[in-house]
Amino acid sequence: MKTLANSLTLIGSVVLIGCVGYLMGGWWDDRRWGWVVIGAVVIVANLGVVVVRLKPTPKPRDWTIDEVRAVIEPIHGEVAQIRTLRRADKGLSLVQAATLVSEARGDDDR
Fold this sequence. Notes:
Blueprint lengths: L1 H28 L3 H22 L10 H8 L5 H11 L5 H12 L5
Helix pairs in contact: 1-2, 3-5, 4-5
């Protein structure tokens, strides 16, 4: 389902870039500079969406509890520890990071 959403977002962004680009030609000829600026902003924003959607997502690495403890040990507070672990592994989801931190802290028995 996530692939379908990404594909539809990509297609929509490309179609919008094409339509606004076409309209900008007429606005340029009519000297409607305000609309040209707005069109340029819309195109740049959608180019950003395309770049973000096409950027590959890194795969999370396999963490051991000892490695997680070594990373989060100097950090106080569970939220800060989760944030630190996610900075160390860009492919780690929020749920995975929270689970690993909870296991490393020994909070499973609550």
